[in-house]
Amino acid sequence: MSKKCIKCGEILPEDASFCPHCTTVQIEKKEIKTPRKWRKKAVIGVAGLAVAAVIGIAFSIYHRPEIYEGGAQITYTDKGKSYKVLLSFSEEGGMTGHAQGERTDTLAEGMNSALPCQLYVLNKDTGELAGEEFSKEVESCKVDTKPSEGSQKMEYVEPVYNESFPNAAYVSDINYVSDSGTNDIQWTLTMKNGDTIFLSTRLTIEKQPAVSYYAEDTPMETTEELNALLASIEEEASADTPVYLHLPAVTYDGDITFGDHVWSISGSKDGDAVTTFTGTVSIKGHDGNYADLSGINFEGKGGIGLDAYCLVLLTDCNFTGWDTAAVAQNGAWVNAMECTFANNTVGLKFNTSMAYGTAPNYVNNTFTDNGTAVCIDSLPGNEVIDFAGSVFSGNDTDIENKADHAVDTAKATFE
């Protein structure tokens, strides 16, 4: 057997390792490649991805949006801090961390009213109020009302920070009528980190049957007749019975006292005649009873026009000629809307250190040519007295705020 030289082509023995003619080595050189390390890198890469995936899953699970639901109170944890979040209709209860899961109120037949449903936040460890800090992490806050079977849906105002309740994070006014029945007040808070908080409280309104008196079928044309009617009401109707009086368009001379009931006292017009009081009208309701007066003139020659010892709501009433047109004595609050106070020494006066009910909105009133239009000697609570739409004209002093109570006149007019 023979082979040829790989270079010069001479015939060589089969086992020749070089060519004697050209001295060329007859073994072909093969390139030796450096071993690749891709397998090791791939293993490391796959392992790294696996670790990253595990870390990612753990991070995702740890920061996954959570749902908190617990009636009128929950404990919420965020960024290492724990908060007690609760609902209350009472400012005192909310500030001290006492949630209110349900409340029952009574309301006179045919009447309407409102309650502020308040959301409070406290640091769970210290018990200190933390509403401002907590609110910075809130994306949205919503309220809804869900009536029970046979009940009417209560109206509500979307929750906001309310200066009248400065310690609450949010407040929603719940409006209801005597036939509202039972509603669940449901709050939903969506946090910026994706968490959701559900809170709920229940409000029940029980209707109080009322008695009504009309001038058409009950004598009340004179002061004597009206006083006789009021005396019979005190004897025959319990203090928790609401009384509706529909007065004729006459003038009542002398002082008149309305006793301890919920009163709805409506005046009337007949040509130029209007229901008018020329003596002091005293309202003596106690322990949550109140009075609603509308369409009445108070015309005096000194003294006090309206002497209130409970919450009194005035609508479309006119006061003129009094030393003090209307005064809230201790335990009382006098609210006026669309009323006129003219030519009084003092128009509206507050002299109370406590009140069973409040109504801070004084909308569309006219205060003209008074010595002092509004005098605040003493007034409880944090409610901001809002005179939106009211006009102050020709008064020596528009508002004398001795108590330094919060007053908003931004939307009032001063002439």
Report the structural category.
mainly beta
Fraction in helix: 10-25%
Give the CATH topology of the largest domain: Pectate Lyase C-like
- Describe the biggest sheet? 8 strands, parallel
What is the alpha-carbon Rg in Å? Answer: 41 Å
Report the portion of residues in β strands: 35-45%
Distance between the ends: 132 Å
DSSP summary: helix tally: 4
- The parts where pLDDT drops under 50 for at least 5 residues are 29-47, 49-61
The coarse silhouette is elongated
Total strand count, please? 37
User: Main sheet: which strands, in order across?
Assistant: 15-20-23-26-29-31-34-37
> What's the CATH superfamily of the largest domain, by name?
Single-stranded right-handed beta-helix, Pectin lyase-like
Number of self-contained structural domains: 2
* Gross CATH architecture of the largest domain: 3 Solenoid
Provide the CATH top-level class of the largest domain.
Mainly Beta
Query: Mean pLDDT, rounded to whole units?
Result: 88
Transmembrane segments: 42-62
Keywords: Membrane, Transmembrane, Transmembrane helix
Description:
- The protein folds into two domains: 67-207, Immunoglobulins (Immunoglobulin-like); 211-414, Pectate Lyase C-like (3 Solenoid), CATH 2.160.20.
- Helices cover 12% and strands 42% of the residues.
- It is built from four helices and 37 strands.
- β18 (269-270) and β19 (273-274) form a beta hairpin.
- The protein is elongated, with a radius of gyration of 41 Å.
- It starts with a strand and ends with a strand.
